[in-house]
Specification:
Rossmann fold; about 25% strand; five-stranded antiparallel β-sheet; 20 strands; alpha/beta; globular; single chain; six-stranded mixed β-sheet; 15 helices; 4 domains
């Protein structure tokens, strides 16, 4: 089932739509600059199950008579629409929201509105009951939670963690003295540990979509990285999805391409795109201390450019950045015109594979240079299959169904192959490429060096 939420005229957002396929059981990370609308989106999702979310957590007067939030499902049921009500000076709905829909999603907001902070208040009132149960040893050992916490923080300091079920709620504590029954309640642990325990509870409930705003708060960089590994495991194990926002580069770097999205405002409309780590790093944090920037498609092309200019004198300090995909390279280059991520536009060069020559999206784009081959891996693949003077030993075992996949596999296997009594290097491959198109490589190299030097 696909779940879609659409915001119109909410705070500074004229339009924002997010769709989540709840059958995927995956991580969805939304990164973005402050004030782009990430927390407003999280509040909107929470509002489906807790209808006074905005009255409790947001500033007044963020709505007007054109404001609405629509929740849609692709299972044939009628969309649920919250529209502006002058009686509450907020959004409201007259529709009945089924209990199965309310229970579909759980949302965790930052201090002081998150569910864990409400639970914190309940814990103080439960202490007497907890103490009585602990005194007679009436508790269990939550082995799965212990593994979860020890995996994230390392060591075995959570081995003494215990749990008690009171009513329908689980409460956790660490036994510090078996004889005296001295214990530390979960709310007396660090804020990061307490957050992770409450996150674990949400997975145990098998809520189909868990949403967390600013998941990195209270977690150090190491814990953030290890948390991502456990989230993937639990999404699969408990058949749930987790959507979270973050500003942490340490966390973002660990995510897979299909897990990472970027929210950006285009005037008053907010759009969320799937983006690569390097794209997000460039926009959110920028690069300092460089005179020139070369944006390119992948790490192989980045390495080749650096190889070509490695023994040349370049007046300007430069950085070669692989972005991931030709259209993303051009998109980032165009955004630099307005946002000035890399400085003046003439200081940014896009270098694309030769198979992009003549593409329509490149019309009227300046400062673009093309590789004299379709791409490096495919050129090596063609030479291996067609050229009688291919210098490296054959046969080489490689895999893949399509030619592009076989080309990538061949390139990797070449680097593990012996040549003249040693392993083949990138330099060997790149040097051979020059023989495939000497004039083309010479022109390509000169275009890059012209960009990196003061005009004569």
């Amino acid at each position: 089932m696909k779940f879609t939420v659409t915001l119109k005229e909410v705070q500074h957002i004229s339009n924002l739509t997010v769709e989540v396929d709840l059958t995927k059981n995956k991580i969805i990370c939304i990164a973005g600059k402050n004030s782009v609308g990430k927390t407003t989106l999280v509040r909107a999702i929470r509002n489906l199950s807790i209808n006074n979310t905005f009255q409790e957590t947001a500033a007044p007067y963020i709505f007007n008579r054109d404001s609405s939030i629509t929740y849609s499902f692709d299972d044939g049921r009628e969309p649920i629409v919250f529209s502006y009500s002058k009686f509450v000076n907020s959004i409201d709905t007259k529709q009945n929201i089924p209990s199965d829909i309310r229970g579909l999603i759980t949302v965790e907001l930052p201090i002081p509105h998150g569910e864990r902070f409400n639970h914190f208040q309940r814990l103080a009132g439960m202490d007497e009951q907890l103490r009585a149960r602990i005194s007679v040893g009436d508790y269990n050992t939550p082995n799965d939670l212990i593994i979860f916490l020890n995996s994230i923080y390392g060591g075995n300091r959570f081995d003494s963690l215990k749990e008690i079920l009171i009513g329908r709620e689980l409460y956790y504590f660490i036994i510090k003295d078996d004889e005296q029954r001295y214990y530390i309640r979960e709310d007396y642990l660090s804020s990061g540990e307490y957050f992770l325990i409450n996150l674990y509870k949400q997975f145990r409930k098998r809520t189909k979509l868990i949403v967390v705003d600013e998941i990195d708060i209270s977690l150090d960089a190491s814990a953030q990285v290890k948390l991502v590994e456990m989230l993937r495991k639990y999404c699969h194990q408990y058949q749930v999805n987790i959507l979270f926002t973050t500003h942490s580069l340490a966390l973002i770097k660990t995510l897979l391409e299909e897990e990472l999205y970027y929210a950006e405002a285009e005037e008053l409309e907010v759009k969320i795109f799937q983006r690569s780590y390097n794209y997000i790093k460039s926009i959110m944090y920028g690069f300092k201390g460089w005179d020139r920037y070369i944006l390119t498609e992948d790490v192989c092309l980045q390495d080749y450019i650096e190889y070509l200019v490695s023994n040349e004198t370049c007046f300007y300090k430069f950085q070669v950045i692989y972005i991931g995909g030709a259209t993303q390279v051009i998109d980032l280059k165009n955004r630099n015109i307005e946002m000035n991520y890399f400085g003046e536009q003439q200081h940014v060069l896009a270098v694309l594979d030769g198979d992009q020559v003549g593409k329509g999206y490149l019309s009227d784009i300046d400062n673009v240079v093309f590789l004299p081959f379709d791409n490096i891996e495919m050129e090596i693949f063609r030479a291996y299959n067609e050229s009688p003077d291919f210098p490296f030993l054959k046969p080489i075992e490689f895999h893949g169904g399509s030619d592009p996949k076989r080309a990538k596999s061949l390139f990797k296997m070449l680097l593990r192959t012996q040549y003249d009594g040693r392993n083949i290097t990138f330099g060997d491959i790149y040097s051979y490429l020059e023989t495939r198109s000497e004039d083309g490589v010479r022109l390509f190299k000169n275009e890059i060096l012209t960009f990196l030097n003061v005009p004569k």
